[in-house]
Amino acid sequence: MRILGIETTCDETAASIVEGRAKEIKILSNIVASQIDLHKLTGGVVPEVAARAHLEKILGVLKLALSKAFSLSSFSPSKIFKKIDAIAVSYGPGLIGSLLIGVNVAKTLSLIFKKPLIGINHLEAHIYANFLGKKSNFPKFPLLALVVSGGHTFLVLMKDHGKYRSIGETLDDAAGEAFDKVAKILGLPYPGGPAISKCAENWQKKKTKAKFQIQELPRPMIDSPDFNFSFSGLKTAVLYSFKKFQLEDLTKKEFKDLQAQFSFEFQNAVVDVLTQKTIKAAKKYKVKSVCLAGGVAANKLLRETLSTQLKGLFEFYCPPKELCTDNGAIVAINGYFKALKKEFILWNKIKVDPNLRI
Ligand code: KG4
Ligand code: ZN
Question: Which of 170, 268, 325 gets mutated to test ligand 1 (max ligand atoms within 8 A of its CB)?
Fold first, then answer.
């Protein structure tokens, strides 16, 4: 079965074709047009700008995804859509203007080519990045997923496909949001996650002796009895601690070292909290596997720390880096599992939901 996945929830315009077979799931194409360069100019996503960019790019992205998947000499939509069994699209959560573009393209294609339509919860799709390749190697239920993206951070138990029970979430900022905001405080570019991670890694590699006395950053809620998170206080701690330095008196090199030292300390604090809570939840709920998901799952330190600390206790799954951040393949994979259960929706019934939950 071949599924076309369309993703436009935030700032990536994406389309992918995924093929589900009896024993494995394969990606035939996965095209992502990133808007990062556009949003770098404003240091974050401006919803109106994102929506316009989706509108400009979506048809080109779609055409590229279809041509790559089937390598046809001439592009004939009616012929190509004969090879597609269903169309999956993220209908929330996300920015309303962005969501509307993907959903309207998907429902138009569904109507014209008479293909079943599947509405996908973007957060669920992130978890499905872990269900790729040989089915015999898939995560086993019950599983625990740590979803860490730009807009969401939560721990969810999954008893079976489509059966979720959220056990904790952030009470304020999401982990990715904290990375983005702290990067802004430190004068690093958007998106903050990769920038902070790179800075911290360089700092560690250089093994430079700490030049500046930075007070230990807090690990909010690390010992709380629940599975909730909070990252806003950590962000404020960075803000106050960073502003204490006479930034204008520093040389360029000193300023870069200070940025790197803060990046290192901040990343350690976030990874400590996420890791500790995840392990505690996995033990409490006696799960069979632990899955990492969402944009922050691309973080090297988080992947390595969880993998090391879960070794021998639980099977740990982590998507390839390019499938952690937003893309169409995760939407199509999730769509495949829904198609197996015939969870389709009529083209005139699907509605975008910016606040959709899992
Ligand atoms: O899942 P995603 O692509 O979009 C949402 O659904 O929100 O996640 C984007 C988030 C951004 O906040 C970005 O800074 C963060 O993921 N991110 C990272 C890394 N790569 C992306 N955070 C930490 N380390 C990274 N390497
Ligand atoms: Zn996402």
Answer: 325
pLDDT tens column, 336-357? 999 999 999 999 999 999 999 9
Residues 187 and 268 in one domain: yes
Give pTM, 2 decimals: 0.97
Whether 203 and 237 share a structural domain: yes
Residue 346 domain-assigned (yes or no): no
What total of structural domains would you count in the chain?
2
Around ligand 1, the residues with Cβ closer than 6 Å are 10, 149-151, 176, 179-180, 191-194, 197, 294-296, 298-299, 325-326
The rounded distance, in Å, linking the Cα atoms of 230 and 153 is 9
Q: Which amino acid is at 111?
A: L
Q: Is the peptide bond before 142 cis (omega within 30 degrees of 0)?
A: yes
Max alpha carbon distance in the chain (Å)?
A: 66
Parallel/antiparallel/unpaired status of strands 143-148 and 153-160: antiparallel
